[in-house]
Amino acid sequence: MIFEHEIPKGSRLYFGKLARAKRVLENSVCEILENNGFEEILTPNFSYSQHQSIENDKKLIKFSDEENEQVSLRADSTLDVVRIITKRLGRTTKHRKWFYVQPIFSYPSKEDYQIGCEWIEHTNISDIINLTAEILKSLKIEPILQISNINIPRLVSLELNIDIEIFKKGEISELLKLNCDWLNTLLRVKDIKSLENTIKVVPNSLKKELEKLLTKAKEVNYSNIIIAPLYYGILKYYDDIYFRVIDKNLVLCKGGMYSTDGLSSLGFALYTDNLLKMLEG
Questions:
Q1: What range(s) does the Class II Histidinyl-tRNA synthetase (HisRS)-like catalytic core domain occupy (predicted)?
Q2: How many angstroms separate the CA atoms of 15 and 25, rounded?
Q3: What is the pLDDT of residues 169-219, one digit of tens each?
């Protein structure tokens, strides 16, 4: 039996102090984004193209529109923002820096709020990472900022002829079983110094992407950085350097470089509910 006062598992309810904390957090982050030249956009909750954003489309909440075309509740904002700006609003605005405060939804009834931004046709990832760092500093927190390059695990899988699924699943034990000296050195990379030393011993096929990762990490003004060259994320569209912000078991932010419809862009999403948990702690 479902009582009339119950809410579906996975949905969000904010009231009292928590509602105020959410509003204060969103307002403070939005102010920083506006001061950095970003304008606000709120995209539709419904989308035709969410399957292009999510690795596992079984997580999408799907139904059909009146013409029997498949529609999904928004599970990710990035690609929808870029396409709406460049294709639907392209004649009315040339602005390329946008932010949003809105929920995402996943199957069966999970709701999560995000504060995110997209910098369309901009390719210097250190700019968006430093913007993320500025937000974290303004909140007076210093969680781990992990920086990775998705091309590195792809190149390693080709170099060693191993399945990329090993990296997707984070099966470090399987990599250690290969007993490869340069790979073991790469697995131990965690900071700029160890990355510099590792670049000297890896195969030439990896050097360019590792050097790119090193260059961008050096441009970031943040003290609590971990470099994780073999980390492989789950979103479909990141295709170069990307990052996440973590505190213990909480993922506070994800961001990175991506390409869609021939445009290279970058952005991030802060996970409001996890940030609130950290700030409360």
A1: 19-271
A2: 15
A3: 999 999 999 999 999 999 999 999 999 999 999 999 999 999 999 999 999
